[in-house]
Structure formats: structure tokens, C-alpha cells
Amino acid sequence: MHSREYFGRALRHTRFFRLHVRDAQGNLTQSVVCKLGELSSVLDEATRYDKFANRLPPAATPRKVRVQRWGAAGDAGVFYQLASGYDENVFSILHDGSRIVETINELKRMMDPWARGQERRHFSDIRRIEISDADFAYVRGELNFDWIGSLENQMVQTSWSCTHGDLHGANILVDQKSMPILIDFGDMSDGPATRDPITLELSALFHVDGPMKGSGWPGDSASSVFLDINTYLKNCPSPEFVKACRTWADARSVSKREILAVAYAYLVRQPKYPDTDKDLIRGLLQGVRVAFERT
């Protein structure tokens, strides 16, 4: 287990592991993904898997094998059986243009059954899915934008559905045929249908293992992120990846403003982590504001 500083508090995190079970002759008999952590967190994930993941095609997720809740004091584990061959993830193939597009297109197809109907929501409602009011108060002071209050009060029409909720590139395993499978189900919930593709796109810049983190891109083009995609993608390390995520988001959204609200919610959550690029966050948030004013 490990901990991380979050607003001065040390939090215990759950962790994922890959297990390969072999027989006496060394033959692989079973490949397992397991999540270990506090009992309440593990049980919550197992419940969310049963409620949400089972609505997806069988190939979209591994099969839950068991929840081990005894023998480790206050910790527990949930185990999923994984087909062999899922040795890469979206982050590791991000710069392989043809493979990454194929993988994201397949993700879109797999997750389409989650789409439901439409709901009208405030920016603040969508933001609360990512960060609570209490934590947002701290973040808001750090960002120091005088326009955030008015944006929080804006309403947008959204396409509402089930969502993975933490669809960064390391949570999507990929096999040699570019077929994806989802792991880590602890944040599955109802939300805007564009939450997953926008999270995936931005995770390449902000996740601790994001391949484009610290690349210097998008630099001064950050403010054009949702206004002029061609300007935004200038010097992008993986334009095919960004375009595929954005195409997926466009297909799931009711309007451009839904995408902006989801991106806003993701971005204002990032300052709570001490290792994020605050200037990049501010630049992209300015891009959200400018695009909202022009749509």
C-alpha cells in the first residue's frame, strides 16, 4: 500500500496488481487482475462492478472471480479473471497512430450500451462529480479566476449515462490486436456521457504516467483547446490520439457546452494534486471559458 499527500492529509490508496498463475510445468493457467485496499473501498468497487459493468458487452471487462475480505485485518481484495495477452495499455501505445485510433474506436463501440437519455445540469452539478464543494473552495482560491462563479451557475443540456469515471490510459489494457478491456471500477457512476472520452484525452497530460505530461505541449495553444482543434494540435506529440478522443466525445455529447462542462470539471480537480502543472491547468481552463463564450 502507499499514501499520497492531498491538501496536507495522507490518504491510503488502493492498488492494482497483475497475477499470473502457472502449473508445475510452468504453463500459464490463469491471469488475474486484483485490487487491494481498505475493506470499504474494495466492497464499494465490487458493488459498482455488479451495478454498472454488467451492462457492458462481456469483452469490455474482466470477469469478477471473488472478493477476499477475511485474513488481512481492515484490508481486502477483489479479483478479476483476465484473458491472456493484455500486456499493454493505452498509455503504452499512445504514439502508435493506427493502433491507438483502432483501440479508441473499439472503446466507443463497447461503451455505447451505457448511453441513456438527456438531463439539464449546472456546471456545478457536473463539477461535484469530480470534486466536492469543500475541496473546490480550496482549488478555486488557488486558481483565482473571477469568472468561475458565473460559469458554475451556467446550465447545459447533457447526454446522461453510466460512466467508468476514471478512464485514464492505464485503466484500459490492450492486447496485440488493439482490443481494449477496462479495469478499476471504483468510480463507476452515472454522469455525462462525455466524461470518459474527455478524461481519457486529458489524462495523457495530467496522469502521473501520462505520456504527454511535461512535454511542453500544448504551450500557448492551450487556450484554443475547444475552439480551434487544428491550432491546438500544432506540435502535438500524438494528434491521432487527441482527435480520436475528441471524435468520441463529439459523438456522445448533446452539445459543445456539455464537453466544456465536463472538461471544466476534470481540470478544476487537478490542482488538488501537488505534482500537476498549474500553468497548464489555467491555460486549458481559459480555453474552456473562451469557447463557452463563443458557443
UniProtKB/TrEMBL annotation:
It holds the Pfam family APH. It comes from Paraburkholderia solitsugae. This is Phosphotransferase. InterPro entries: Aminoglycoside_PTrfase (IPR002575), Kinase-like_dom_sf (IPR011009). Residues 33-196 form the Aminoglycoside phosphotransferase domain.
